[in-house]
Write a structure and sequence with these properties.
Blueprint: H1 2-8, E1 18-25, E2 28-35, H2 41-64, H3 66-70, H4 83-95, H5 103-116, E3 122-126, E4 129-133, E5 138-141, E6 153-157, E7 164-169, E8 184-189, H6 192-203, H7 212-220, E9 227-232, E10 235-240, E11 244-246
Antiparallel strand pairs: 1-2, 2-3, 3-4, 4-7, 5-6, 6-11, 7-8, 8-9, 9-10
Helix pairs in contact: 2-5, 4-5, 4-6, 5-6, 6-7
Amino acid sequence: MKEYVERSYRLLHRQHDLVFFQIAVKETDLDIGIPRDKLTAGLVEGVKQEVIHIRSQLEQYIAKDQTFLRTLKPYLPGPGAPEIARVMARSASTAGTGPMSAVAGAIAQHVGVYLAKRCREVIVENGGDIYIRSGQTRKIGVFAGPSPFTNRLALEIEPHRTPIGICTSSGTVGHSLSLGKADAVVILSPSAALADAVATAAGNLVQDENDLQAAVEFAMGINSVTGALAIKNDKLAAAGAVKLAPV
């Protein structure tokens, strides 16, 4: 399975001018791209410690508030909640989902912002949710499981649109909860946490090809969402600042 994931999924966001390294802490599994001259053992260790720190804050809060972990509906965290939990809750509330729908995007963005203070080019991928800051145009391949668009279709991300979150929800790929059957719903937003939550909410709306347009329209109706793409089988719908290109 690991080899399949590497070839069919992570390779779609790899860039030839960047060097990539991985950080894995419990469920958080990051693939991170930065300029080669910025890669040092100290930087890698710093990222790892930042992930441990942010996860620890979230885990300690969840231990005291199980509703935050389990609910699928908007939920306000209690007093003393760490900033990562508040970001997740705000984003999920905007999307109409539970806070954990934003966790992967929120962590990707947190690490991306940490690295952006040190590197001019940053890509952080966390379970299919991506944060990008770049001074050049980037092509990010779309992974849509069994759809014929997989490995054939990419999003072209222009530098003036970054930093940006590119987050994907699927009802046919991966272990993340989806109540829909989309092969992929991809959401673009300056907030990766919001993009993650909206991808979940929009993905929940897709049962078949007839739901694709409604899903992207729902997503585009949410403030700060700049683009939406929904795929089922050999059909797709797109709206907003989505520039498609061949892989």
